[in-house]
Amino acid sequence: MGIPKVGTNVRGSKTGRPIMVVLDLLGRRGALRVLWELRGEPLTFRALQEACGTNPSLLNTRLTELRASGLVDHAQDGYHLTTNGRSLCVAMQPLSAWASSWAGAAESCGGQPAQPKRSRARKSSKTA
Questions:
Q1: What region holds the HTH hxlR-type domain (predicted)?
Q2: Nearest to 72 by CA among 57, 60, 55
Q3: Domain boundaries, position 46
């Protein structure tokens, strides 16, 4: 799987729209965790690996993708979020608030968010 780019096919979408590219990138294992751990201060590779609890190969892959996407950069003091990386974290704060609200609603529904009820009027088709 290559580095997702705007205007190209990405996982889950053939449109290449920016939102789909970002969701593909952030949906990769460990990507959000890397961004989360870098939200405070720069970290060396080893410190970031320990903070993320991941293996060096996966971390190297995610850092390569996040750097190529302009969200993370590397300097003498370690890896850090770029201006775009920091603005992404700010943009995700409302999603975090929504997720907390959703989690509370999910708990009151027995651990899962409420699902819409299906109409019994539909006939099931075994050929569909």
A1: 25-104
A2: 60
A3: 1-89
- pLDDT exceeding 90 applies to what percent of the chain? 57
* Tokens of residue 53, six digits: 């609890």
As to burial, measured by CB atoms within 10 angstroms (0-12 exposed, 13-18 middle, 19+ buried), residue 114 is: exposed
The per-residue pLDDT for 116 is 53
pLDDT digits (tens, 9 = 90+) for 58-110: 999 999 999 999 999 999 999 999 999 999 999 999 998 999 998 888 877 76
Q: Please, what sign has the CA dihedral across residues 32, 34, 13, 11?
A: negative
Count of the separate structural domains present in the chain: 1
C-alpha span between 34 and 58 (Å, rounded): 11
Q: Answer whether 24's CB lies under 8 Å from 10's CB.
A: yes
d(CA 16, CA 7): 4
| Residue 123 forms part of a structural domain | no
